[in-house]
Prior knowledge:
single chain; mainly beta; 11 strands; about 50% strand
Amino acid sequence: QVQLVESGGGLVQAGESTRLSCAASGHTTSRITMAWFRQSPSPGHERAFVGGIDYSGTNPYYDPAVKGRFTISRDNAKNTMYLQMNSLKPDDTAVYYCAGSWGGYYGSDRAAYHYWGQGTQVTVSS
């Protein structure tokens, strides 16, 4: 079993930056691929893929909506994944979730992830 706990976020101004962390604990956490998703507070919005990262941390993959503004990294020695978010916009307001998969997958299919964190709120004010 793997446990994921997000931290960071809060209230930020548009144009500013913030960093989220996802700490993993449990069995062989460095062998899971990981990803970030987010869910907007607007009605009808599903949990949407932000980006993911492979075991080694050398091949991140991003949704086009955030590519160039967000950076995903991981430190396997600390069992932690990060999401650096720059040039934030009000549309980035959401609950951000980290997810983990044993199968080597780190794309947008939510069903491929075995573990989820509880989420952390990011609110971007204009």
